[in-house]
Amino acid sequence: MIELINIRKVYNAGKPNEFVAIEGVSLGIESRKATVLKGPSGSGKTTLLSMIGCMARPTAGRIMLHDREITSLPERFLTEIRRAGFGFIFQQFNLIKGVSALENVMLPAYPAGERHGPLRKRALHLLDLLGLSHKASSKTEWLSGGEAQRVAISRALINNPSVVIADEPTAHLDTHLSHEFMDIMARLKAEGKTIIMASHDPIVYEAGAVDRVVDMRDGQVVGTGGNP
Amino acid sequence: MGLIEKQQNIIDFTLSSLLRRKGKNAALVVVYAVVVFTVSGVVFFTRSIQEEASIVLKHAPEMMVQRLIAGRHDLIPLSYIETIKQIRGVQDVKARLWGYYFDPTNGANYTLIADEAFAHGDGNIVIGRGVERNLPSSVGGTMPFKAYDGSYVFLKMKEVLPSESELVSADLIMLSVNDFRRLFGVPGNQATDLVLSVKNSRELSTIAAKILTLLPDTRPITREEILRTYDAVFSWRGGMMIVILSGAVMAFVILAWDKATGLSAEEKREIGILKAVGWETSDILLMKFWEGAAISLSSFLLGVGAAYLHVYLASSALFEPALKGWSVLYPHFRLTPFVNAYQVATLFFLTVVPYTVATIVPSWRAATVDPDAVMRS
Fold first, then answer.
1. How many angstroms away from the CA of B45 is the closest CA of chain A?
2. Domains observed in chain B
3. Which residue does chain A place closest to B376, by CA atoms?
4. pTM
């Protein structure tokens, strides 16, 4: 269970370009469910996602992860929680160019100090699960959009996180690939992972696997509801 | 979860990351190695020259006395020998006859030294390797000299000096005292300079002062003063050295500065991605440290190795014309390697450490950004 209590996030505080991205958001996100943050661009979805994923701290308010307050933890601990507990799928995929798909998948596990052999095996297994084992040694810039995203998904799963966070995951995919992506998310949810996505794509928020849609606008939650 | 495995993983990624920009990094290593090569070449070369010089000068007289007229070196009367011998502490005083001879046929300058104890007698000479290389004939042949009065003197070559002493003997011609006087018209009661040995070397400065009082038109020069001159010429502050060194250091500063300021947008993006997927700031600095260390260490080893080969095996072919003096007859010799740990450590700290630091600083700045920067970009 992730709980956000009265979250406020201000960028460039005290400067002329001060900008309030999130204002007074309180929200509970259930474990092992798929939640979608829905709203137009600039509504604060990505900011909220990055705070849930321990990438940024709120300016005010508290975030509880399994009843543990994480907002005040030092960077090192936040990084550890982020690495072990969260897998990220970014809108731009954010793969490292010039190195192989396999190495990209293994990257989040490197600082944990795992032995190279077993880690490589696990990464190959993940690529295999997503039908990409034949592309393991390909450089990421040679991959198609769909393939790149599946590498990004494999990378998100390498540390076996309990929460998968995806920011506008279908923004660069066609309809077919978008449905395929949602199928993968459904599979992960069935395996017991918590899925949190930010999207304004109906293919995402209307998908059968989605349990809850949180409507956002202007940095605030304007409504929540489950899928029919 | 092992610390060693973590290092291995990060080094692994660093290497594959470096291999991505093979051309750029190879060029960087080459330029960097050239800079290290220049600096360490100069250091090796000058250090060895200094060592050679001090070995040669170890056998040099403790003090020389020259006569000066109008501030210039002039022939010294042999009568001065007796005056100097009177000074307490002076063991022995000898006259020396030496000079330079310009050979217009070869455009070369030879150093001529006459010795009372010259074994081959009048009419004969012993020559250095450099002189021999310049002549059509060798031992057994004759060498013509144009004397001070325009007449020609023919001297027979009896021996060639061994090549081990070539640094000092390349342009050397040894001959008898009589032949020397005949060639240059030096009167029988005069010599080029005097050399003296003393009983106690700590009294050298007192003796020098006494000589100056007794013979005000002379200049005593001690061996230490000559060594100091060599030091001044060949130490890092001396002439050519400072020019080459400052050039190399400037090149290095530009290289390091480029590295310190020029973290590309792509590199910044990658650092952001690594942070977002769970790398700590310290992990990224570790990676950048290994990256800097890999580049600077390989350049250092390459540069120092090449400099060693160049100075000690290739006889400093590239520095030779600039650093081995003004003579037409460059000595062909191999310097004996005088490389100590202190020198290598100095070179290491002057090149590897600043570069590695220069690569870490900008990465540290980039690595301290919030990981969510990647999501917002």
1. 43
2. 3-57+233-376 (no CATH), 76-191 (2.40.40)
3. A46
4. 0.71
